[in-house]
Amino acid sequence: MAISPGYFIGEAWSSFRRNWVMSLVAVTIIYISLLLVGTFFLTGAIVNRIATSFEQKVSISIFMKDGAAPADVQALQGDMQKDPRVDSVSYVSKTQALERFKERTKNSPQLVEQLRGNPLPASFEVKLKDPRQVAAVVKTIKADPALAKVIKNAEEDVHWGQTIVENLFAATGIVRLFVLVFVILLLVVSLVLIGNTIRLAIYSRRKEIGIMRLVGASNGFIRTPFLFEGVFQSVVGALLASGTLLAAQAFLVPWLQRNLRFLPVSISGTTLAQLTGLLLLSAVVIGLAGSGAAVRRYLKV
Amino acid sequence: MISMKNVSKVYIADKPPALSDIDVDIAQGEFTFLVGHSGSGKSTLIKLLLREILPTTGEIIVAGQDVVHMRNWKIPFLRRNIGCVFQDFKLLPNKTSYENVAFALEVIGKSKHVIRTQVPEVLKLVGLDDKAESYPDELSGGEQQRVSIARAFVNRPPLLLADEPTGNLDPATSLGIMSLLNRINKTGTTVVIATHDREMVDSMRKRVIALENGKVIRDQSRGVYGYGD
Ligand SMILES: Nc1ncnc2c1ncn2[C@@H]1O[C@H](COP(=O)(O)OP(=O)(O)OP(=O)(O)O)[C@@H](O)[C@H]1O
Ligand SMILES: [Mg+2]
């Protein structure tokens, strides 16, 4: 049985024209569902970025005693740089520390005038590849024998803001989990919704399916135009939803950046590509699964 | 063409069977009426032949194929050998007469060329060549039934089943439909008609199989509808 794909495309198109009200309803519902999914996906991406930018501020500071031997300081730096979890180790000399202090207090110069000499210690600032590792890295550093030679007291001179960091990670973890659960939930809800819509459209054409079966159309032949149609409707809905979201974020993100200066709001190109991919992929899956499941019911013998 | 052996059909356990212990053989080229009261099992028998339902017990052979043990994917190929006609015509309202008939060929993958030659031919056979472009709601009941017969026959199946084809039609129109089915039978097609239409059965003098409560109570080769029942 050699039936050209042209037949099915023609059928899909003519049935779209014949059943355009049903198709319009299906496309609209798919559009709205995917719009919701996409909105939350983008919100999630923004929140994730903000959380990451907070996390990246986490670092370890090690304050050294005056007069520590340069060889010991270098030994400690070398040990820390060898640690694969460490991203960078930067040395802040006593002079640099004073400069920074002056810079920070330039509105009250009398503070600097009161200083006798330079009481500020030299320090290391350690940044991590994954800030969540901070507690473990601190433990390793404290165990390093080189450390004891350059500081006075391990408890006081190694700073990493333990409670703040732990609370931050708890908060970002909850936010991320919430966003993930919500996106998945929305996706499932829209799958069901869209599947039902397609089923309704097919239900309204069960007479046609019955006649096809009666005159001996094979199941594959009956199913194919419905699958084409389901996928076609879903993809149209997904493209509309992606288009709307891309346009909306092009306006909204700069607006947020202007009005929420304290938050690093941004969406990367990768995220936008992922969004379009996610919506299109869901659309194809939903279209196939929804129409496939619906036709199956009328193909049972 | 049709062979049923010890066929029974029970829809709902505890209820009397819709058909019990049916033995029927219908040869190729025969013209057979299936008569009986409402609920006697005529439609059930037709559905069994079409493999719309499976018998509870028994063997059924239709057009050389074992209907009972047939794989599901083969059912469409069985149906391509059977034309069927129903009381409610089962036409697609958004297709013209021509398109309704062509539909039966399209969905079994016939080429455009075959469609363009066979559809006008069969529309002419049923006397509707001038109504090819009409939609079902622009046709009388008798004309709609002719379209549905044209659709059933366009593929030249060896077997044609009709379940009360004249159930919705007046006597004069019914006569026309019967003579059309008779003409189709003359081309060599086996025809089986389930009907209530007493006059029709009596006037045609064909084989009559009478059902009552799911049993064959009479099988006559040049029969009549019944004895005053
Ligand atoms: N799907 C079904 N489920 C349960 N019982 C059924 C079903 N279809 C038919 N029956 C029963 O089987 C019996 C035979 O029904 P059938 O439709 O074959 O009768 P019929 O001879 O065609 O009647 P009619 O002349 O009214 O069309 C009836 O008692 C009917 O109630
Ligand atoms: Mg009946």
Features:
heterodimer, A: 301 residues, Alpha-Beta Plaits, 4-stranded antiparallel beta sheet, B: 229 residues, alpha/beta, 6-stranded mixed beta sheet, 10 strands, globular
Rg over C-alpha atoms of chain A, rounded to the nearest angstrom: 31 Å
- Provide mean pLDDT of chain A, rounded: 81
**Total of helices of chain B:** 7
The radius of gyration computed from the alpha-carbon positions of chain B, rounded to a whole number of angstroms, is 17 Å
Classify the secondary structure makeup of chain B into a structural class. Answer: alpha/beta
Strand content of chain A: 5-15%
Principal-axis shape of chain B: globular
| Uncertain residue segments of chain B | none
Largest sheet of chain A: 4 strands, antiparallel
- SSE-based structural type of chain A: alpha+beta
State the separation between the terminal residues of chain B, measured CA to CA.
30 Å
Q: So what's the oligomer here? A: heterodimer
Strand order of the largest sheet of chain A: 2-3-1-4
Low-confidence stretches of chain A: none
Ligand inventory reads: adenosine-5'-triphosphate, magnesium ion
Strand order of the largest sheet of chain B: 6-7-8-3-9-10
